Every structure is written in structure tokens, then in C-alpha cells.
Amino acid sequence: MTVEVPRETVTLTHIAALARLGHALSDETRTRILLTLREAPAYPSDLADALGVSRQVMSNQLACLRGCGLVESVPDGRRVWYRLADQRLAPALGDLLGLVLAVDPGCCGPECTCA
């Protein structure tokens, strides 16, 4: 017996959203930011210190992630902290991480020979 699973209609909006996520994940620093923010919101300076990057780099990467619609800034007095823009992103990142590790953790890394 075959069970049919209903599929969501894929639109250009869906494709653009996945492309933005792919762009965000194509940079190691942005990926590390997203994985860190799935644990808890953070101030840019704390993220920069935790990830070992300059505050300028952090500012640029957060601006990119904000532009992709993946993070949002929250004013806090004279400071601003960041969180994932959608609560569903945290488990989705965890699922993606599990999937990538299950497929081949060595593929497409610095010493990849698949290309």
C-alpha cells in the first residue's frame, strides 16, 4: 500500500527564502552566529568575543543575516541584542546539522575531493 504525503506548493517566494538561507549558511561566520543564536539571544560584542571575530566583522555579518530575514535586532536601552527571527529556525538548524553530519561530514570541507 502506498501512502501519499501531501506536498506544499512551492512558489518563487519559497525558492527565494531557501536561497537566502543557503547564502547565509555559505559563510562559516554566519553559520556559527546562527548556531549560537539558536541557543540564546546575544549582544553583538558577546557574539564577537565568543566567535573570535572583530566587532566590525560581527556587525557586517549580522547586517547580512538581518537582510536575509534570519535574525532580528531588539533595542535594549543604548544597546541592541540579536535573536533568530523565527522560533522555528532553531530546530530547523538542528535538523540540518544532523542531516549534514549523517550524509558525509568530510564532504565539501577544506580537503574535499568530490569536486
UniProtKB/TrEMBL annotation:
GO terms for molecular function: cadmium ion sensor activity; DNA binding; DNA-binding transcription factor activity; lead ion binding. SMART domains: HTH_ARSR. GO terms for biological process: response to cadmium ion; response to lead ion. Residues 10-104 form the HTH arsR-type domain. PANTHER family: HTH-TYPE TRANSCRIPTIONAL REGULATOR CMTR (PTHR39168:SF2), TRANSCRIPTIONAL REGULATOR-RELATED (PTHR39168). This is ArsR family transcriptional regulator.
